[in-house]
Amino acid sequence: MHRGFANTSDEGWLRSMFAHKVDARKDAHSNLLSKKETSNLYKIQFHNVKPECMEAYNKMSDEVQRELHRDADYPCEVIGSWNTWYGEQDQAVHLWRYSGGYPALTECLRKLNSNMAYLAFRKERSKMLISRHNQLLLEFSFWNEPVPRSGPNIYELRTYQLVPGTMIEWGNNWARAIKYRQENNEAVGGFFTQIGELYVVHHLWAYKDLQSRQETRNTAWLKEGWDVNVHYTMPLIQKMESRIMIPMEHSPLQ
């Protein structure tokens, strides 16, 4: 028997092609996707270190970050510090939080620029670096807020360069999908850029080890709905990258 285009199965397929459409933007995505109850701003730093200097770099970073944490006059705190294990080698990654948003960032920079010990640290650190770059981030409203955790853990930073104009659609899909990735407490934080490379998303995950990572990710595929999230978000990605990272000794995220 001839099947018409309006067959029930065809209708289901046709509807799926137009599902999850996002309303036209009526506000900046920073207002639509970020947490309203906090005014936190985040900074992520990527430092490419000379291989022979990594040990000295880690020790110096530890000392300076401890001093900043002891001084309540600075409205900033390091959330996590890591060395990349798999991905870009001889790299340090730091995630900072500024409680109070851009004014807190400005205040912190002003105070650091008059702190002679910190300026001496920056000068010494510059001799150890090959290159560095940073980004200012906001956190997605539907993600866990990063809090200190005991270890040992490994961390995965998954970075997505999105097609410009698709951040809202990404957020809509992940607001539904994040529930599939909470079973093992692996979700640490989700962020999107405000300054630096734009339309960049960072998802930070914690696992006991690489085997646990594989098992946790495989389990997600057994949950109804996870495959739909992947189906609708993959076309939004221009480029993606995964880093496996080991916490530094002083990192609050262990």
UniProtKB/TrEMBL annotation:
The organism's superkingdom is given as: Eukaryota
Q: Name one GO biological process term.
A: mitophagy
> Would I find Cell membrane among this entry's keywords?
no
Any single GO CC term annotated in Swiss-Prot or TrEMBL for this entry: mitochondrial matrix
Q: SUPFAM superfamilies attached here?
A: Dimeric alpha+beta barrel (SSF54909)
Query: Which keywords, in A-to-Z order, does the entry hold?
Result: Autophagy, Mitochondrion, Transit peptide
**Which residue ranges does the record assign to the NIPSNAP domain?**
155-252
Instruction: List where in the cell it is found.
Output: Mitochondrion matrix
Give a short account of what the protein does: Protein involved in mitophagy. Accumulates on the mitochondria surface in response to mitochondrial depolarization and acts as a 'eat me' signal by recruiting proteins involved in selective autophagy.
UniProt lists the family membership as follows: Belongs to the NipSnap family.
Write the protein's name. Answer: Nipsnap homolog 1 (C. elegans)
Organism classification, top ranks? Answer: Eukaryota, Metazoa, Chordata, Craniata, Vertebrata
